[in-house]
Amino acid sequence: MTFLPTRVAHALAWPLMGLLMAGCGSGRPGVHDTSSSTAGPLPRLGQASPGRLQACESLAQSMADPHTTITAATRVPAGRLKVAGAEVGEHCLVTGRMFDRISPVDGQRYAIGFEMRLPVQWNGRFFYQANGGTDGNVVLATGEIGGGGPLTNGLREGFAVLSSDAGHASNQNPLFGLDPQARLDYGYQAVGKLTPMAKAMIRAAYGRPADRSYMVGCSNGGRHALVAASRYSNEYDGILAGNPGFQLPRSGVAMIHTAQQFSRVATDPADLATAFTPAERALVARTILDKCDALDGARDGQVNAIAACRQRFDLVRDVPSCRGARDGQCLTEPQKQALASIYRGPQDSRGRALYTAFPYDPGLTSANWAQWRFAFPLTLSAGNMAVLFRTPPAPAEVLKNRAAFALGFDMDRDAPLIEATDARYTESAMAFMAPPHATDLRALRERGAKLIVYHGMADGTFSPLDTARWYDELRVTSGPAEAADFSRLFLVPGMAHCGAGPATDQFDLLGALVAWVERGQPPDGVVAQARGPGNAGGANADVPADWSPTRTRPLCAYPAFARYKGQGSLERADSFVCRTAD
Question: Does residue 524 have an active-site annotation?
Answer without folding.
Answer: no
